[in-house]
Write a structure and sequence with these properties.
Blueprint (H helix, E strand, L loop, with lengths): L1 H83 L4
Length: 88
């Protein structure tokens, strides 16, 4: 009878161990999937931000370039007037 009790206890503990293992494995899988989804979303967001920053930077460079070329002829004309002695 004592041996049967030990075997029953052993079987009960083994079942609990299996249940805990299954629950923890499921939790790990779910948690991993959630974390991977968060990483994917974060990566996508960062890629979008970088694209927007690059686009903004390009538009700023273009604007500065246009301003520069608008001012260069004026600046050259002003300097030529000064050099040639024409009144401004």
């Amino acid at each position: 009878m004592a041996l049967e009790s030990i075997e029953a206890y052993k079987a009960q503990q083994l079942d609990k161990l299996k249940d805990n293992y299954t629950q923890q494995s499921d939790w790990i899988r779910q948690n991993c999937a959630q974390q991977m989804e968060k990483v994917r979303e974060n990566y996508s967001s960062q890629v979008q931000n970088i694209k927007e920053i690059r686009q903004y930077g390009s538009s700023q460079v273009q604007a500065v370039r246009e301003q520069y070329f608008e001012q260069v002829p004026f600046t050259l004309q002003s300097k030529s007037k000064i050099v040639l002695g024409f009144p401004q």
